[in-house]
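FAQ
Q: What does a multi-component entry look like?
A: The components come first, one per line:
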Amino acid sequence: MSDDLMQKIVSLCKRRGFVFQSSEIYGGLKSAYDYGPLGAELKRNLMTEWWTDMVHRRENVVGLDASIIMHPRVWEASGHLAGFSDPLVDCKVCKERFRADNAPRAEEGADATLRFPDKGAAKAALTQLTEQLGVTAERRGKEIVGLKAGAAGYVCPNCGSPFLSDERQFNLMFKSAIGATDPLGEVAAAIEAGKLEGLGGRELRTALEELTRPSAVYLRPETAQAMFVQFANVQQALALKVPFGIAQMGKSFRNEITVEHFIFRSCEFEQMEMEFFCEPGTDEEWADYWMNERMSWWRRYANAPDKFRFRAHEDAELAHYARGCSDIEFAYPWGWGELEGIANRTDYDLKKHAEASGSKLEYFDPVKQTKYTPFVIEPAAGATRGVLVYLIDAYHEEEVEGAKGKTETRVVLKLHPRLAPYKVAVLPLVKKEGMPEKARAVVDAFLQKGIAARYDEQHAIGRRYRRHDEIGTPYCLTIDGQTNEDDTITIRDRDTMEQRRISIDGAVAEVQKLLA
RNA sequence: GCGGGAAUAACUCAGUUGGUAGAGUGCAAGCUUCCCAAGCUUGAUGUCGCGGGUUCGAGUCCCGUUUCCCGCUCCA
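Then the predicted structure of the entire assembly, as tokens:
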């Protein structure tokens, strides 16, 4: 059922021009998606709503639009360069993949006991050990005993097996090279000069890294760091007093181990983040404040507000820099999943960057005459996730009575009017008696005001209504026979399908009122 | 990356033991039509994901590969 819903949404997205697979005619590129005309509007509307709410409506929050490529030392200081290259290992017995540094320790030669959920699984594992790995061991119920831990120094956290793949580095940051010359030229020159001769494994890797390091740059894996790095500039330029926030929207890039669920997790994605700098000791209060602000923002545009919830991170899953973190989760078709994280990042980031750069990233409180490193509350939302969330929230199938009295299924995207790609569709009831001309004039009036409007005369009126239901157009304006008599048109509500008459001259003002 | 499934028209899908690529929907043109995918006429659209192989002949069989979906894992 849930897969079904996602498939319908994916299909609608393509058919109606919300989201296309990237580079589709070349076979597609993994996890890359393009936002079509309607998707571009939806995403833009969503992000504009965020910016308006977070920046324009608040005196103490300002914006930033930083470059995606920053100095590589930013990522060293932030911990991303190390943290995003954690060695991962696969278990050869149960196929579990895990982080080597989180695995249960087991010194070489220590007893290793494999545990399985039931006897059947243990039997199967024993057979596998014997046949594929050539190992003899003994099974006792759900366990396999008589094995020793290997040189790795740890065992599989899932089944306890010491049969593991080599550690593999996953570079989760997109690496690129800045400069007009290809760093491979340096490598080629070094090879020709024999400088790499005799090197292997880790040594060779290190040597190659050193050769390419001068030109190595990374695409940002989050927008947050620029706001820490520019903290002092922003604070001084605008003479901001703590507490204040810096907000930023934009693309981020991560080589995710797995991408999934359409645009839910992709390597290139868009974020809406704000770093709120506050006095130490007031941080928990501000964390509560922003949690409530952000939750009410998400719910404001939703049909089903109860599909959003908080989930506090347990201590074990907290990032090393965070004192606390609460996710705003949404009930996706596949289950609850993250949409936004509100983290208390303490003074970790500012201190790290101060230390690494040698710059003072402190705040002097002119009233209290004290100097301190502010604490940071970070509401970090996924903009592209937001698009998916509202598409899922908006997608409805309804049984309605058709023209001939039989029940039909109506597909309607109940997008919030401010998020909807088109605000109005203007339809001549029939293509004659001057109706198309009048409809065109109405469309022009909307476009002059910068309101996304669409003229549509194709096919029967009912079909046009349904077509706009499917892309979420909240209002359809129809020019009919009566328009010629009294200069009124009908306005149809997408969700109720009810119509009422309004004056043709007041149409723009009427819709503006509805959108406000 | 590992394991499982899938890919045929814009969408949803059929396609027999290998023998000239189909339907519905949608789309386009026109007629009709004064309000909820109505009716009629006409029309266009296929590198059958891509690349090899087997074969007289491959949408169909084999191999590789790409992409998508479902689990493991990671995050916004």
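Q: Is there any commentary attached?
A: Sometimes. For this entry: The CA atoms of residues 380 and 462 of chain A lie 42 Å apart.
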